Structure formats: structure tokens, C-alpha cells
Amino acid sequence: MGRIKFYILFILWYKFSEDFKESGSLINSKMPTIVSNRWIVLTTVNQPTKDVKYLATLSKWNVVVVADLKTPKNWTLDRVHFLSVETQKSMSETLNLVRKLPYKSYTRKMIGYLYAIAHGAEWIYDTDDDNRPIFGGLDTFDFADELSGVRFERNHSDPIINRLFNPYLFYGRPDMWPRGFPLEYFSQHNHTDANFRLCEVQKRAAVQQGLVDMDPDVDAIFRLLHANPTKVSSEHFNRHAPSIILGQKMYSPWNSQNTLFHRNAFFTMFLPTTVSFRTTDIWRSYFSQKLLHLIDEYVAFYPVNAVQIRNAHNYLKDFEDEQEVYLKSGELLKFLDEWKCSQNSTANCAIELAEQFG
């Protein structure tokens, strides 16, 4: 049943994310003036946090916040497009996908993506209510079509362990791994000089993830091994290492907390609804990379441009919710690396992969 549901929901997502690029407003209620084609999307169950209030001050960006059942009914903040549960119900008259998304679920964030797309988004910045841009913030991402810089590249026939990229290792923390990195590869994994190329001109990445200082996204195993109950997490990375683009058939997990998507990658933003909150964005990241490679688009990592003071979490609950990530990431990566599309269009390839992926 979960496999069928993933397949059906992805088809709906693909259809809506493509169709709504030119569709116009989804709702009739009064919303703030749209200031650009750049959108910030998040979901929250809290009153406006300091970080959300800061995001709302960014003059070049629109902000859309997606509510859930626990979100305070009186939630309001100037310049924010707030999609209350009631507003979402009105949107469901147009969007079948909205009706099918579960409540009390991080995946309702997809309603915000669709809202931004329908209102002319060219860029969507995916974040959470406990993340704040710093050190140049969103301006440190690349918006031009071409750039010079570093590329992570290996022979496509090399073992998968050699084609994996650990951004934490690259930015100076060999002791750390991002949530979703296949644990069976960590102890033997490294980057050698042969992995890196300096390119005078290359296409900018359609998905760009910035690293996060203080409390970066690691899995519960790392947190349980290193947690200090007497102080706030204070992890740091090398801010002087360059941004880096991953080449074809190079892979790395990335999350939904400090990630910029270009319009060309919108069709890959689907968050699986049949897995846990701690799994959904990781599965998306791997699924997305395979689809992006089909259309000659790429993923990039950037030095620290945000900070997170993490909302309270139960590490053991996180550990339980991450079981699939620990047990299946390597297997999933192998499947995706070997998968070949039998169709002749991006749309049909995406649907075929969704059918097999689910």
C-alpha cells in the first residue's frame, strides 16, 4: 500500500509542480505583496520564532509558512504568506494533492512549495523555523547560470564508496557525517585529490545546500555518542573552503533545512509521505539526484551560511525514526546508481522511477 501511495502522490506532485509554474493565485484571501521570484518555505507548530521573524525582514524574498493542526490559530507576522489549515482546505478544492497529505506531518510543507510555484517562483529556499542565515546568508548561493569553481568527479565505474561525497569531511570535520550518509561506508570513506577538478566555466547547480553551524544535521547515532547535556551543541566547519558541485553519478545526502532549489529542480521536491519525518527529506535527496542527472542538472554544497539552535528533540525518538535511514540508505543508493530509464521523456522517467522507488 505504501508503494502505491508513493507512486500516486508523486504523479500528482509532478503534474502540479509543472502545471502551476504559470497558473497564478491558488487562493482568494488577502496575502502580502509579492516582491520577487524568490521564495522561502517552511512549516511550523510554534508562534513566530526569532529566526522566522528575521526571514520576514529579507526584502528580496517572499516567505510562506505552512500551518498544521498544532500551529497556533492566532499565528501572524507581517510580510508572511501564512497558509492556515482553513486556507489549505480551500486550496484542496483545486489541488487533489493537498487533500491526500496527512496532518501532523512535515510533508505538508509541499503545500508551501506549490503555493510559491503558482505565484511565479524561480527559486525556493527550503528551511525550518530554527535556522537563520548568517555570514552573507542567502546571497552566498549562486543565482547566475554559469560560474567557475570546484567540482567533485570520479570515473562512473568506480565503486560507489569512491563516488560518495561527505560535505562535513570536505569542510573540515572528518569525524562527522550528515544524516543519511550510508553508515557502512563511513569508516573507509575519504576524499583524495583525484576527486576534485577546477572548472573555469560550469553550470550552476539546480540544488544548493549550505552547511549549518552550531547544531548541523547529523543523525541520532552521532548525537547520542557526542551529546553533552550540560551545554548547547557548538559544532563548526571550515568557512574558507569553496563551494563544490557534484558531478554525474556522484552522490551525497542533503536535507530540507538550508537548501536552495532552482525552478529546474522543482519537480524533484516531493517529500515521501509513507516514511518518517527523519527519513522523508533524505529519501527525497537521493531520488532527486538521480532525476537531476537525467536532465544534466546538479547538486552543490556551500560553506556555512546559516546557524541552527535546534528545537528540542528526543534523541532516542529520532533514533527510532531514522531506522530506515541507517538500514536502507546504502541499498537505496545502489539501486538508484544502477537504475536506467526505459522511457524517452523526463516526465515518463520520473514516473517510472517513482513506481520502482516506492
UniProtKB/TrEMBL annotation:
Annotated PANTHER family: EXOSTOSIN DOMAIN-CONTAINING PROTEIN-RELATED, GLYCOSYLTRANSFERASE STELLO1-RELATED
Protein name per UniProt: Uncharacterized protein
InterPro entries (UniProt xref): STL-like (IPR005049)
Top-level lineage group: Eukaryota
Organism in which the protein naturally occurs: Diploscapter pachys
